[in-house]
Design goal:
It comes from Penicillium cinerascens. It is built from eleven helices and 18 strands. With 381 residues, it is of the alpha/beta class. Bound molecules: SN-glycerol-3-phosphate and magnesium ion.
Length: 381
Amino acid sequence: SGRNLGRRFIQNASSTRVPNFAFAFDIDGVLLRASKPIPGAAETLALLKRQNIPFILLTNGGGKHETERVAEISQKLNVPLDATDIVQSHSPFAELVKGTDETSALEHKCVLVAGGDGDGCRRVAEQYGFKNVVTPGDIFMANPSIWPFSKNFYDYYKTFARPLPKPVDPRDPAKSLKIDAMFVFNDPRDWALDTQVIMDLLLSSQGHLGTLSDKNGRADLPNHGYQQDGQPHLYFSNPDLWWAAAYPLPRLGQGGFREALGGVWAATTGGPGKGIELKKSVIGKPYQGTYEFAERQMLRNRSTAFGGATNLPHLQHVYMIGDNPESDIRGANSYRSNIGSSWQSILVRTGVYSGGEPAWTPKTIADDVQKAVQWALEASK
Ligand code: G3P
Ligand code: MG
């Protein structure tokens, strides 16, 4: 609707210039590296703000609430941002609080939240609306023998652990703490304790901690039968096997923990290659659900940016700028937009990708985010 000012901007009814494109920026390795601004990042976001070109931050990172994370980024990159400008790895988990119906709602169910520093992720989950959140640290402090080797971290866990809502009582499963869902919100800091607790629950009787289902995963049982018959479902928020941190080489991410846990599961339930498939949900880039969540958020922001208008010109292009071919490029390339937007991936050299033929082919490769945006602005003319 309205006059077309070249391909990039369309004048809507109230004669405001509305761009028919937007940007999605990965954070680690694109805007920040080890929490420090990457050269050109601040200037780039300032330019888009000046030209009223919408953008969203789309990260597999997390561990803090969106408001807290954007406040930090806003300060580091000197750009005004609010919680709606970012989608973190665990942001979509907020939709599980109410679920799609009474039975799927987890709001009042007892959920395990693993990962992150201290109980930061518990507090994020509570800010999302989860009312009964337990951490592996709580479980350890209530039962230190659950993992004999975390005693070295006792002083750490003591700083944030809370009493369990119910005791762990192997003798009386019905009375023992029951976990209804397990979430890995961010990279676990104590892979050993988190692996042990999650394995205990995957092998439990109906999610009652300290019990063992009569069929689940015991090599001494005839069929190692693993029945998803009430064990809590396991949700991972970030598939990244590697990510760009301070060290010059990529570091293991939450995907590393997932693969380690998967190895323990396979060995427990039948051995390599014979293991029983571990039922789990993994969200985050490159998966469709996370890109859909980001696109919905982007459309809400675009409407807000233009006075709540609902008849804005179609969002034709979204330029996804990332450093990790496996999550950012693969995700944008394979995303099938629900509104017919074309997501175009741009790979930068300031993070995980360090040259050569990337496993997933981007629209273009740029030295850094500033050059990537310059390329996109040219392309959208
Ligand atoms: O855990 C953070 C890491 O997985 C990468 O985050 O911002 O590059 O998607 P990001
Ligand atoms: Mg990255």
